[in-house]
């Protein structure tokens, strides 16, 4: 299949995708590192950075949905087996849910813990919930477990993109790459 038959995503959707991808690929390792650091200033800085990036992901998720509504999505790439279309749609929908849910769970866990969420030192978010140790553990635990799930989905998504782009060379990856026209 040549790239001439592939309809790309709208340019704004592609930009948001790659910015979001960079943020997600930053926030995941910070999440793993911050809980392993000894308590103190360094750990607090990594927590603040993790929270700030998480809030940026949440804001970008809102913009991403607005762009999706405004521009829609291209039709599925021709020639994909049914199971790949279903797997792709399921993965994308789960990732959409998680880019909203993960920051909200983290924000809720921080609020319930009693930690303020400062966004890059520019402003502080209001608490989502009152201080509550049990609620903090619940939100924090859900955030951690879903973080592992999201990491696996991101790895699956990257693997599938690379399979289409490098192994199959079927044009599916090119739908999200910069350079193709579709305003």
Automatic annotation (TrEMBL):
GO terms for cellular component: plasma membrane. The keyword Ion transport does not apply. It is a multi-pass membrane protein. Residues 9-179 form the Cytochrome b561 bacterial/Ni-hydrogenase domain. Its main location: membrane. InterPro entries: Cyt_b561_bac/Ni-Hgenase (IPR011577), Cytochrome_b561_oxidase (IPR052168), Di-haem_cyt_TM (IPR016174). It comes from the Bacteria. Keywords: Cell membrane, Electron transport, Heme, Iron, Membrane, Metal-binding, Transmembrane, Transmembrane helix, Transport. The keyword Signal does not apply. It is found in: Cell membrane. One of its GO terms (molecular function) is heme binding. GO terms for biological process: respiratory electron transport chain. Belongs to the cytochrome b561 family. This is Cytochrome b561.
């Amino acid at each position: 299949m040549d790239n001439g038959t592939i309809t790309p995503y709208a340019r704004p959707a592609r930009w948001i995708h790659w910015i979001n991808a960079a943020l997600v690929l930053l926030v995941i390792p910070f999440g793993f590192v911050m809980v392993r650091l000894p308590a103190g200033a360094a750990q607090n800085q990594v927590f603040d950075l993790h929270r700030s990036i998480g809030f940026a992901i949440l804001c970008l998720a809102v913009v991403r949905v607005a762009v999706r509504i405004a521009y829609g999505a291209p039709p599925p790439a021709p020639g994909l087996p049914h199971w790949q279309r279903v797997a792709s749609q399921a993965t994308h929908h789960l990732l959409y849910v998680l880019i909203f849910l993960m920051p909200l769970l983290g924000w809720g866990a921080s609020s319930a813990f009693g930690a303020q969420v400062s966004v890059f030192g520019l402003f502080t978010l209001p608490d989502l919930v009152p201080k509550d140790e049990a609620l903090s553990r619940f939100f924090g635990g859900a955030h951690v477990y879903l973080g592992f799930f999201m990491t696996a989905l991101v790895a699956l998504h990257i693997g599938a993109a690379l399979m289409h782009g490098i192994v199959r060379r079927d044009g599916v990856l090119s739908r999200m790459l910069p350079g193709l026209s579709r305003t």
